[in-house]
Amino acid sequence: MPELPEVETVRTVLAPFVVKQTIQKITINLPKVVVNVKPSDFVKVVTGQKIVDFTRRGKFLTLHLAGGDYLVVHLRMTGTLTVERADVPYAKHTNMILTFADGQELRFVDSRGFGRWWYFTSGQTDTSGQLQLGPEPEAVTLNYLRDHILTRKTAIKTLLLDQHIVAGIGNIYADEICFRVGIRPTRAGCSLTLAELEKLHAQIPAVIGEFIQFHHVPFAVYAQSKGTSYQNDANLRVYGRAGLPCQKCGQPLIGTRIGQRSSVYCAHCQK
DNA sequence: CGGCCCCTGACG
DNA sequence: CGTCAGGGGCCG
Questions:
Q1: Among the options A3, A6, A84, A105, which is catalytic?
Q2: Which letter, b or e, does each residue of A38-75 get, where b requires 16 or more Cβ atoms within 10 Å of its Cβ?
Q3: Measured in angstroms, what separates residue A33's CA from nucleotide C10's C1'?
Q4: What is the rounded average pLDDT of the residues A5-16?
Q5: Taking the CB of residue A103, how many other CB atoms lie within 10 A of it?
Q6: In the annotation, is A245 catalytic?
Q7: What are the residue ranges of CATH 1.10.8.50 in chain A?
Q8: Which is the catalytic residue, given A56, A57, A59, A157?
Q9: Digit-coded pLDDT (tens) for A229-257
Q10: Per-residue pLDDT for A35 more than 70?
């Protein structure tokens, strides 16, 4: 569910409530959420540690601990993070709870149970997948796109979804980026003209940056929605709008599937 | 690469 | 009831 802009929202909204907290107690209600260590070891080694920073890379979040160890979280489709007082009733599928010394709790709620956590010591190799990510959208250069898009026969949308190429783009923003560039999501990467590649280079960070801005919500609003208040619907041009008129030309948008993922585009505006 | 899997819940 | 969901891993 969350793509880079949503994950960034989670980070910015929660950081003030998480950083400088000491983890007094850990409750793991779904053992498999912890990937690389036994849940009992996770509890043992993380309890008592202090969080000193909260960062994001692509769709991964990292809670940095005072000694240099760190926790990696990936929300996948339905994972959410909230900070609540301990007396607030638990939502269904509250799979992980970090209780802080001040009584507040960082809660990981995930109905489908796809979200994952990792624990790494400072010297350990990070096996979460973060190390294999491509550059953040704002760090992508035109030359980089030339090397990774123009050389590929794969559909441009599939390439945009590949986290090894650019980090953080998901199904919504891949469609939105293709719309802004005016290319069909099915176009082979190598079929893009230089002009289209330049547009793509501009629109990748532009679209992601815009939605980070749209998502900015006060903590109270975020808390009210239990960490799902992304509020991007009004700003989406194609995603979720199959059959509705294109906001640019009025023709009905086409819904289709590309590599198991739903896709929407305008047959008139996207060549 | 495409296809299937991991899961629960919302919707038609 | 079937289908779909904003993620990613694994398998041939």
A1: A3
A2: ebeebbeebeebebeebebbbbbbbbbbeeebbbbbbb
A3: 18
A4: 96
A5: 10
A6: no
A7: 137-265
A8: A59
A9: 666 778 899 999 999 999 999 999 999 99
A10: yes
Residue A110, CA: closest nucleotide via C1'?
B8
R_g of chain A, CA atoms, integer Å: 20
Residue of A2, A5, A137, A185 with catalytic role: A2
CA distance to A60, A125, A182, per residue, from A161 (Å)? 15, 25, 17
- Protein CA A151 to sugar C1' C4 (Å): 33
Q: Are A29 and A94 in contact (CB under 8 A)?
A: yes
CA dihedral defined by A194, A196, A201, A204, rounded to 10 degrees?
A: -160
A16 is catalytic: no
Protein-covered nucleotides on strand C (Cβ within 7 A)? 4-9
- Best CA proximity match to A267, nearest among A200, A184, A172: A184
* pLDDT digit string, tens, across residues A74-112: 999 999 999 999 999 999 999 999 999 999 999 999 999
Model pLDDT for residues A180-209, shown as the tens digit of each residue: 999 999 999 999 999 999 999 999 999 999
User: Is A105 labeled as catalytic in the residue annotation?
Assistant: no
Which residue type occupies A14?
Answer: L
Every domain of chain A with CATH number 3.20.190.10 lies at 4-132
Smallest CA-to-CA distance from A56 within A109, A113, A13, A102 is with: A13
Q: What is the pLDDT of residue A229?
A: 61
What angle separates helix A194-215 from helix A4-18, to the nearest 10 degrees?
30
Residue A145 to residue A205: CA distance in whole angstroms: 13
Kindly report the bases of strand B lying within 7 A of a protein C-beta atom: 1-9
Tell me the pTM.
Answer: 0.97
For the domain made up of A137-265, give the CATH fold. Helicase, Ruva Protein; domain 3 (1.10.8)
